Amino acid sequence: MAHDPRGPRLPAARGPVSAAVRAYLPGTGPLPAAGTVAAASPYGDDLQLALYLCYELHYRGFADVSPDREWDPDLLRVRAALEHLFLTALREDTPVHACVDDALADLLVEPVDGTGVSHFLSGEGERWQVREYAMQRSLYHLKEADPHAWVLPRLSGRAKAAMAAVEFDEWGGGRPDRVHAQLFANLMTDLGLDTAYGRYVDAACAETLATVNLMSLLGLHRSLRGALVGHFAAVEITSSPGSRRLAEAMRRTDAGPASEHFYDEHVEADAVHEQVVRHEVIGGLLADEPQLAGDVVFGLDVTGFLEDRLAGRLLAAWRKGESSLRPAPHESEGGGAAVRQERGKAHAS
Amino acid sequence: MPNSPADRPCRIRVQRRGPLLVEGPVEVELEDGTTVASDRFRVALCTCRRSRRYPWCDTSHRDRERKPS
Questions:
Q1: Residues of chain A contacting residue B62, judged by C-beta atoms under 8 Å apart
Q2: CA A162, CA A284: separation in Å to the nearest integer?
């Protein structure tokens, strides 16, 4: 097997399950035992990183890991067990609305005295906190809109045409310099961060991994297409006002023109996208498949549930003046020195 | 009169609460005579006049509510 030496390096393990999956990918160890997997905490670092490792094979893979691992049946069995734990916990823990219209109505009201991450960063965020936010979010924004592409073959007619149009806009409307992932890379450059895909996985907390794993979970399963559409709608509906506050945070901390542009673009783009997703994608899907309404509600509500957990983690750290990032892994696990250096810079600036 | 059979009316979606949705690309002429353009596949034009990115919608038309404490 020819293993590509390029690509993201494998992140450091965070427990027995992720350690075994990490060793299995390049073929240097066995998969975790079923009992080890079953004992993992659904929202914990170990399970979330293991799931992230499994999912990344469907996107960019890892250096020195065979691309064929993507369809390794033994690894897929472990992934299914991890997904079962995560999804079961999400279904139990997410408070859900009675119907799609109720869930949408709540998302469409802007709180006057909001307390989220974007409110914090626009009001009092410092440059090192803006940088940490960009590092955490880079796990998604460097593949922005990619996890949602999996749903396209599962839609038809009105829902498909609208979903494809929004995705086309996310991918720059045919212009590589306008691809949203590229706009985010430009933001990272403004902030003095490394734009390499997967560069900050080691620094990302479990709550960040969970938000990214949710997209892959919903995208990769046709049975969860209703939830994927609900999730995408929740992201688009909440993005425009949140992006306005983040653009303010970028201006206030002098982050740079590309940083401001990334969020300014999302204010405008997502004001359109949320309309198209609500009327055409959700409307079209439920006209075709009304039995998916409950899944759409779950997708709408579970997105806020995991975003609130992430916000709680970030704000708890920042209010104490502490870093929200995970401590750098040991040298032997790779990438340690560079991450530490990066974090030192963040605090110094 | 249409110039060719391919020409069709420009479709605009109106909502009582929310922006006008117009198929892009569009050029918008503002009151001061300047024009702004967008080549997005669809464009949301502000009708509530609250947008800080006028004439584009920035979702400022949404209801604002204090969180129940």
A1: 108-110, 241
A2: 9
Domain count within chain B: 1
CA-closest candidate to residue A180, choices A129, A223, A239: A239
Residues facing B4 on adjacent strands: none
Per-residue pLDDT 10s for chain A (349 aa) are: 556 678 899 999 999 999 999 999 999 999 999 999 999 999 999 999 999 999 999 999 999 999 999 999 999 999 999 999 999 999 999 999 999 999 999 999 998 888 999 999 999 999 999 999 999 999 999 999 999 999 999 999 999 999 999 999 999 999 999 999 999 999 999 999 999 999 999 999 999 999 999 999 999 999 999 999 999 999 999 999 999 999 999 999 999 999 999 999 999 999 999 999 999 999 999 999 999 999 999 999 999 999 999 999 999 999 999 999 999 887 544 443 444 444 444 444 3
* B19·A244 Cβ contact <8 A: no
- Alpha-helical segments (H) within chain A: 16-24, 34-38, 45-56, 73-93, 100-107, 117-124, 127-141, 146-149, 157-170, 180-190, 206-220, 225-252, 257-276, 283-288, 293-319, 336-348
Confirm whether B37 is domain-assigned: yes
Domain-embedded: residue B4 = no
* Residue B27, amino acid: E
Tell me the residue range of the domain where B23 lies: 10-60
Domains of chain A, start order: 16-93 (no CATH), 100-348 (1.20.910.10)
Minimum distance, in Å, between the CA of residue A90 and any CA atom of chain B: 24
Is residue A103 within 8 Å of A301, Cβ to Cβ? yes
Mutation site for A-interface testing, chosen from B59, B62, B69 by largest number of A Cβ within 10 Å: B59
The answer to whether the CB atoms of A110 and B63 lie below 8 A apart is yes
Is this model's pTM higher than 0.95 or not? Answer: no
Give the best residue of A244, A268, A273, A276 to mutate against chain B (max B CB count within 10 A).
A268
Q: Is residue B40 part of a domain?
A: yes
Interface of A with B (CB under 8 A): 108-115, 165, 168-169, 173, 240-241, 244, 264, 267-269, 271-272, 274-276, 279
Contacts of B58 in chain A (CB under 8 A): 240-241, 244, 267-268, 271
- Report the C-alpha gap between A235 and A242 in whole angstroms: 10
CB-based contact A112 B41, cutoff 8 Å: no
The interface pTM score, or ipTM, of the predicted complex is 0.87
